[in-house]
C-alpha cells in the first residue's frame, strides 16, 4: 500500500483513502490480521487442536454479549445471520404471524417465509404501529440499503416479541438490548472480523422455546462426539454450531477491543462523517453511518449499489479525507 496506516481509536489500519464499503465488508485492524496469520501458521505446522480455539470462541461470545448488553451465557455462536434466524423461525408455532419491514435484508425475512409462517410486510416507518396480533417482529436495527434506523424505544414500548438484527449497527452504534427476545449479528461488517462467525443472543425466558435444529458435537456440553443421546447445555450454547475457527481468531481481537470503546463517540465520529457528506450536498443530516445517494458510481471511492442507489458506509477508520473525496467527485 502507498499510504501510511491509519490510526483510529487506538488501532491501526492498512487501507487507502476512499474505502466506504464497510456495510459490505469491514477492514480489520493490523493486530487482527496478525492474529489470523498466526493461526494459519499454527495450522500449517500441524500444532493446533480443536480445543486450541476455545479461548477465542469464549472471547467472541463474551464480547458480543458485552456489545448488546447481555451475559455470555445468553449468546449462541453460529456462522451466518440467516442460519441463526432460521433456528428461531423453525422454533415458532406453525403458521405464526411475523411482521417485517418491506425494505429489510432478505436474511432477516426469508427464513420465516421458508418455514411457511404468515409474514406481513409493512414500510419501516409503519412497523411499530402494526405490531398488534403478531407472534414476532423481526427487523434490522439499521437498514442495510440506506442506513435508516428503527425506533428501538417505541418498539420496546409495544411489548411485542422482537428479533433484532444488529449486523449493520453493532460496532458503531451503541445499543442495550437485554429486553429483546432475540438479537443476531454477523462478524465481517462493522465488527471487522473474518466472514464465518455470527452470534445469537436469546433472552433466558425464551431459550427453552428454541429448538437446536443443528445440534452437534460442539453444542453438546459432554462433547462425547458419538452416539444418539441429546444432552443440552443450560445456556444458549446449546444452539451453537461447530465454529469457523479462523473467523473467531480475528474476531477475538476486534470484538473485545470494540467493547472497551466509548461507542457513543464512535457513533458521533461515523455519523458525523456521513452527515458531512449529506450537508455538503445540500441534503439534511440523517444521524446514521450509512448514506444512500441517488448518484452515479463515484470515482476513487469504494462503495456498493443497493436498491439502485450508491451506498456509502463510514466506520471508525474513515476520516474527513474520505468525505472530501466524495464531495469533490460529486460537486
From TrEMBL:
Q: Where is the Aminotransferase class V domain?
A: 92-281
Q: Which keywords label this protein?
A: Aminotransferase, Transferase
Species assigned in the record: Lentzea tibetensis
State the InterPro entries in the record.
Aminotrans_V_dom, PyrdxlP-dep_Trfase, PyrdxlP-dep_Trfase_major, PyrdxlP-dep_Trfase_small
What protein does this entry describe? Aminotransferase class V-fold PLP-dependent enzyme
Superkingdom of the source species: Bacteria
A GO term for molecular function: transaminase activity
Q: What is the lineage of its organism?
A: Bacteria, Bacillati, Actinomycetota, Actinomycetes, Pseudonocardiales
Listed PANTHER family: CYSTEINE DESULFURASE, PYRIDOXAL PHOSPHATE (PLP)-DEPENDENT ASPARTATE AMINOTRANSFERASE SUPERFAMILY
